[in-house]
Fold each of these.
Amino acid sequence: MTTINNPFVMYGYKGAEYFCDREKETEKMMTSLHNERNITLVAPRRMGKTGLIHHVFQQLEKQYDDVKCFYLDIFATKNLEQMVQLMASEIIGKLDTISQSALRKVQEFFSSWRPTLTIDELTGIPTFSLDLKPNEGRESLKRIFEYMKQSGKRCYVAIDEFQQIMNYPENGVEALIRSYIQFLPNVYFVFSGSQQHMMEEMFLSANRPFFQSSLVMSLPCIAESKYLSFANRLLSSQKREVDVDTFTYIYSQA
């Protein structure tokens, strides 16, 4: 376990040891995903959505064999092509052994988009990028989903800040993604977003493609008493402790 100086993790995921509470949410998400349900996770920024997703994915990979989890943050993407490029870099090649035959198979599968392969020098993990032409994002997205389907592996994909697709210039992206994912028997999704109104409109409105397609969850604040116990447990290893009044001030400022 990597030691960190500040137990108040505000960004990212540092591992289960530094993950506070969320036992009920973790169990609910793991059970739902294992039982083949998609999840919509809605909460304001800095409420811990990303950490919860990574925590759930880590537990799933520990508990079940032949499971692959992928996390995508599409907040910075401006169109469907950029989203597909991000998916390609995160997913393609990660479902295969790092053998020449396996990598050759991937390159042949995506040959129309001239995949470029790079190997991480430290981990040996392959990364592919696709040379997408304008207006090929839809077909490329379908191809990536087919790649996951044909892998035979159970895949979990989290798409964070999912409401960003509403800002894409292409028409019908919602319906397009919905039409693809409903035919993936081994791939399940977590759609996460911080814009509550937009996410609820997408997933709770009867006239939208994603209506009743997933379990909708929200994240409340972590109870102060639980957070205090968590913090002092970690601080105790450094022979330190935070008193109730000081913690209450920190908690109210977070």
Note: The chain is about 40% helix and 15% strand.
Amino acid sequence: MATARDIMHPGVTCVRSDDTAANAARMMAEMNVGCLPICGADDNKIKGMVTDRDLVVKVMAAGKDPEKYTVDRLPQGHLILADANEDADITIAKMREHQIHRIPVIDDHRLVGIIALADVARSLPETTVGELVESISA
């Protein structure tokens, strides 16, 4: 069976926790992605995730200045992670249970990739993808 490492997108770039929302948005636009892991400015460990929706709803629509508002100020829930060597079915179950579209992948406490819904669609059977989409959309 496939592991999280087999289906992940490697080479993830973090936005530093002390970076601004505007810089996070620019990074997302340059990389054509909808989210970025937030990594500590000092230790480079994953602290959370910022999505394009976070930037729109929690910064722009809330009247915050994106050039001054740092991403570490964005509310963060419990961070759900996948271990690179865990069975892909376990990773998919986490995504279903927590209704998340993307999950960071770690190996020995180090960020090594991310799995997005598109990665699941490219790598796994249609029934698995359909079940995941259905549970996330509920």
Note: The chain has a mean pLDDT of 90.
Amino acid sequence: MRSRGLQLVIDARPRGPSGPLAVEPMLGRPLLARLLEQAVPLASQDRPIAVHAREEEHAMLRGLVAESAPGRAILATGPPQAGAAVLRTDRLYDAGRLRRALRRGHDVESAVVWRLDQGRSLAAAEEELKRRLTYQPLGRFWAFGLARAVAEALAPTWVRPNMITLAAASLMLAASAVVAVGGPSPYLAAATAVMLALALVLDTADGRLARLQGTNSPFGRWLDQVLDELSDMALHAAIAWSAYTSTGNVGWLLLGMAYPSGKYLFVMQSLGGEDLERTIAVDAQAPRPSASRDRRSFWKPVRKLAEMAGHADIRWHAWIVLAAIGRLDLALITYAAYFPLRAFAGGLRKAVAHV
């Protein structure tokens, strides 16, 4: 819903250690591009979005503004006018909260989820944005509510988040053991699905509990990531072993080896290309031919769909459903191919953008 009569503007004047924050990449895209993406659906159709920037930086931002909001935004100098709803490039905003704030006439600061003007690093802001963009597209409908109830019940107790993390991993490993040696039993299939579902709830609850108790720590985040990967690998290894022992087909063992290899390759090409992604993001400031923009707009939903297929929450729900029907082998087949293909596509995209 657009806010009629309300002038929506962007203040692109805030600066960071290396220059204007507007061009700093966040998950591979400039901060200003992300703000414009949020602002365009909310702004009045009869008023352009004014992007206020220092005059000497207009040349730097012109191409970025034209590409991110063609025909919907203009560059301006000086401070934003009084009474306008001002989005700032030193803020990260929650899209839903921003929409509600504008609809109800509230201050847009109520939609801020991260501030870059308080000594917080861009890297930390990127992690927060990644968490919010990818947080439980399916689990939020059921697991998050249960996890919140668990966390609120445990908040005043001696139970700490790392204990919940270990409990979630224990359930995952127990489910993997059942898959590996349990055999084709509908009762064991149901038990496996239940353990996977409980593990998802606990894996969600540990972070919530840490925030409620104020016990967030780098070690806790590290432990959660390591145990998540251990559980992932253990489950797929168990699937491969179970399929091999029931069929005698050595191809299942090869798939069991292909899965961790493909995932490792995908993670390494993603992490190893961070500097290149930053270069690509800054290069996006330059105007692009319309044909190039058309190709990008065509592939954007395809890329988002591919990324969603590999989302941890989507995969976890696939495990639960496939475990319940006794077809976890389909998860191994799918993702043993998925991660190598994602690695190849990511490398190809970087190579084409860099040429």
Note: The longest strand covers residues 8-11.
